[in-house]
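F.,

This is the one I mentioned.
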């Protein structure tokens, strides 16, 4: 599968109490085609709402896929991938960069009562992570010893893996929409903290 014509990558950059979201729309040729910003609460439960608001604010019907950087940004402000998919009516996939035994132990250590129950419900609703090996025949895919991991909703996991693989540019490990969004989110956080 070739990458979609336009992918919205969403990344987060945390401050003390507020996490800044950036959305970067990137064309299949790697060209940045739009930016948007939003915020959510560090340690809160509003990351999914912020991602939906970001998508709506951009108003770009030409976006074909939505990629998010992980599922637990802003200190366990978990993303509900199914709700995000249903609301924006696009395939959604979360990309992570390291193997993990799962978040349940960390959630249990950080929260209790209703706060823990809400987060566990969201976490347990997520699809399983699929290991994405780089395309070894393509030097742009990066080091084959460093896989990515994808959780996909609204798209077959293998198709999501192929799309993610196609979005990685030579010399980088992150898919371009997420790399651009991470740079923008960090710059946006720094600018708002100085203001």
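My design for it:
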């Amino acid at each position: 599968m070739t990458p979609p014509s336009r992918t919205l990558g969403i990344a987060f950059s945390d401050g003390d109490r507020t996490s800044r979201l950036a959305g970067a729309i990137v064309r299949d040729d790697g060209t940045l085609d739009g930016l948007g910003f939003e915020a959510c609460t560090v340690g809160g439960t509003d990351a999914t709402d912020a991602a939906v608001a970001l998508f709506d604010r951009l108003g770009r019907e030409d976006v074909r896929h939505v990629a998010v950087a992980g599922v637990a940004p802003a200190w366990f402000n978990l993303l509900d991938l199914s709700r995000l998919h249903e609301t924006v009516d696009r395939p959604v996939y979360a990309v992570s960069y390291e193997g993990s035994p799962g978040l349940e132990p960390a959630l249990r250590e950080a929260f209790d009562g209703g706060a823990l129950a809400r987060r566990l419900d969201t976490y347990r609703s997520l699809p399983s992570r699929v290991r994405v090996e780089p395309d070894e025949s393509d030097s742009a895919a990066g080091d084959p010893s460093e896989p990515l991991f994808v959780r996909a909703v609204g798209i077959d996991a293998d198709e999501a893996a192929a799309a993610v693989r196609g979005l990685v540019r030579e010399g980088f490990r992150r898919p371009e929409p997420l790399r651009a969004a991470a740079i923008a989110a960090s710059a946006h956080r720094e600018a708002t903290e100085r203001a």
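The domain at 6-190 is CATH 3.30.2170.10 (archaeoglobus fulgidus dsm 4304 fold).

Talk soon.
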